[in-house]
Amino acid sequence: MKLENMFKKTRIVSRIQSHGTVHAQRPEVPEGLLRKCNKCGAAIIAEEVKRDNYICPKCGGYFRVHAYRRIQMVADEGTFEEWDHDLTGGNPMNYRGYEEKVQVLQERTGLKEAVVTGKCEINGSETALAVCDGRFLMSSMGWAVGEKITRAVERATEERLPVIIFACSGGARMQEGITSLMQMAKTSAALKRHSDAGLLYVSVLTEPTTGGVTASFAMLGDIILAEPGALIGFAGPRVIEQTIRQKLPKGFQRAEFLVEHGFVDDIVRRGNLKKTLSDILTLHNYNKISSGDQNSADVEDEQNNGNQKGRSSHPESYHIGNNPYLSAWERVQLSRKMDRPSGKDYIDALFDDFMELHGDRNYGDDRAIIGGLASFHGIPVTVIAQQKGNNTKENIYHNFGMPMPEGYRKALRLMKQAEKFHRPVICFVDTPGAFCGVEAEERGQGEAIARNLMELSGLKTPVLSVVTGEGGSGGALALAAGDQVWMLENSVYSILSPEGFASILWKDSSKADEAAEVMKLTATDLYQKGIVEEMIPEPVEFNADSLWQVTGILDNKIETFLDEYNKLSEEELLNRRYDRFRKF
Hints:
This protein is an alpha/beta fold.
């Protein structure tokens, strides 16, 4: 019999069929062998599902995972130490039948409450861990759930551990009334103290994460990950449909929707989750192999490797002034060339372990700016780049490198995160300018740029900016108000485009070539004025194939910059930065 027929009802044609015949038509399947996918309805073999991390082999749908199974999937074997196992709550509203229901669930699930907390190691990195279990009153948050999470976060703060929480919840526990509501404030306050101590919190959102849990600890992570297709929202979809009397669009409130709208950093498949969490811990200095001695050894190994990232075996053969006779306008045109390397090219060439983080936590994820965590010679850094793309399709996808307000707010979020964890920030600037349009003004383009400039002036971590192509006006400055600014030889940096300059001052945009000369926008011009600290030479034909000639030089110079600026006190760093702009 085919698997898809296992769950089909058998139609009895005749009322006088013998009992034996009817019995023969029933599928004889060993108990527990098959399950029915609650998403696609297909019959699936239970053992096959378990081997594939509880994912349907037919539709790819994710089954909910019990708390202890989830711990087995991410924790190193034998390292999990449970905290507050026997902690249970009461019945603050004397709700009839509540205690009996809790007791039944305790017996059925083997759990005392809807969350399991403790600490473990993930590929050798120690972390506090909390995992919600949807079998227990849909992991709704009553006093016991809030208390266990709060205690776990407090203990992590005392022991200086990162926190990872797997959220799966229907929200507040109705049977506990206002006591349940208070857990939202309690858990959030504990996480604030943990954050103020400079410690990492990673939130992993699973199916479903809704209500008071979404409106408290689930959405407060330094990094927020989600499983594919997970339902995530404050109000449930049925409640919304009943309220607005409209059918919701497909994919509404799903994990992918949350990434697009700027609230989730990334979607991670279960098979990659342990490695992703391990990589995050490593980049936040929680992995034992990230110690200074090991970093030194890693760097030494890299230096002995002829294929290491960014390094040229002969950078000294390229010197400033490869094209000394080019006009300013010719350099403008070179800075705009379609095949000129874009932001992501530099990230891939110079950094290891890049992990892109999405969204501004407010409105959306702007594709004109990409950013995230990376490693540079073993040093954790935050990398932010304006991205144009290298062909028309990519240009359109990245809005030609012209950021929206949410792009600048995403960049600022990543910068503030870098400050918290004392990571240097490295920005790659390449934009014609901030996007001009109705939607940009509605969402506060000017405020977003102004906020970046103000916050950058006081950011307590080194900030380096490299203009790699066009440095267009405030849209470029919003990522270039740090400690040093460097320019590639044929990049430009100006108050606006030459066409705009000629149009405004001379009422004739066709005089852009003349305007370029007047504007003093080349790397040489700005180096002589003290606007930029370094000029980086380029090969005559600069594209993806010759990028190594530039990244080889950048690699050496970035290493020198980090070595110098990481040694400065916060006061020295901020005074230098203030004086840098005060002199103009």
